[in-house]
Amino acid sequence: MSSNSLASSSELKGSMHLLAQGKVRDLYEINNSTLLFVTTDRISAFDVVMGSIIPNKGSVLSLLSVHWFKLLSEAIPSLRTHFLTLELPSQIPSDLYNQYQNRCMQIRKFEVFKIEAIVRGYITGSAWSSYNKDGTVCGIKIREGLQESEPFPDGPIYTPSTKAVSPGDHDENIHPDQAATIVGIRYAKRIEELCLSIYKYAAAYALERGIIIADTKFEFGLDKDTDEVVLVDEVLTPDSSRFWPASSYRVGESPPSFDKQELRDWLKNNNLKGQEDVLLPDNIIRVTEEKYKEAYERLVGRSLDDDTASYTR
Questions:
Q1: pTM (2 decimals)?
Q2: Which of 154, 158, 163, 174 has its CA 20 to 30 A from that of 113?
């Protein structure tokens, strides 16, 4: 495996305790207050993990998240995030530095709220399907007469979802009132305020760089010592967001996106949707890698290759 690819972090289990393993990310405990957030190059589609990896995907997701954490902390002074540093902890053996550099964040340890905070600026995807069915999105009544991919007329909307707990479970879209019953009214209000503020800032920033953020997902945690809501997980990446190129955006159409749409289309066309460990053809791997890289470079304004070379221990 080349140094710019990481399929598994299993070699770290001997030096740190693995707390959780997701489709793409692995979470290790460094100490009682600090975790290591490892983003591999694994890729999933239709809720299953593929048998191939996308080179540099982990670096894109980690470095782009860090870029946003820094921007957002400056733009929204009241916002706290879990990010500490890109430096690798001493527990990682030196012979693995190159493999893990740029794919890991040291983060503060917080209790994560059991909802996902989704903000939608444009009506598309499941929101468009729901709107066509009964004129609502997550139980929120939306003005009649909208076309697919049109901006919501009254501005972006907050549409939380539950978090899947067990393998095979799926997130469920819920009304904001239901989210308040899960996390508490005061925390729910703060989460809604923060995610809408973050989205509005990020959407304007991205649009200046030729990208429309149609919708995105945030996660938040609670600092029990200060009783503050904290932004956690990844943020505003192609995995957690729907990015459209502004140049090809048209109301009434479903634009192409900077994510794994080529992969999804290939799986559907080859009757492989929902199958695990599918090996991907070279052209799908290459196109997907290029999409992630282009999104990064547009938003950050620098070459991914230059950035991965400059972030050293």
A1: 0.94
A2: 154
